[in-house]
Amino acid sequence: VQLAESGGGLVQPGDSLRLSCRASGGSVSRGAVGWFRQVPGKEREFVSAVKGGSIYYSDSVKGRFTISKDSAKNTVSLQMNNLKPEDTATYFCVSGPTVITSEIRNPGAYYYWGQGTQVTVSS
Q1: Which of 72, 73, 74, 102 has the highest CB neighbour number within 10 Å of its CB?
Q2: In the chain, at which residue ranges do the beta strands (DSSP E only) sit?
């Protein structure tokens, strides 16, 4: 499975961005699909994922970010509202056909990763 992210950029605090991820060579409907983010020098941080009919968010983005999956288009999107400077990071789309619910926030559980897209929130 190949994952290709798009939609990153430079925005001001309070602005919105929408990240998209297109999968090829496999289906986003298998297992879990979602987003992690990483700041240089820090570990990859879980952002959000969807597995079956269940959606998961980190506490830091809950209420501001919304994940959605389009199985027909084989895409997953992340709508990010009310962005904060601490949201600045490289965002990675991930897919894990065999991810179990208890491992949904574990980056090691995801086999496929995109190249990442940079999101910078700064005034």
Answers
A1: 74
A2: 2-6, 9-11, 17-24, 32-38, 45-51, 54-57, 65-70, 75-80, 89-96, 112-113, 117-121
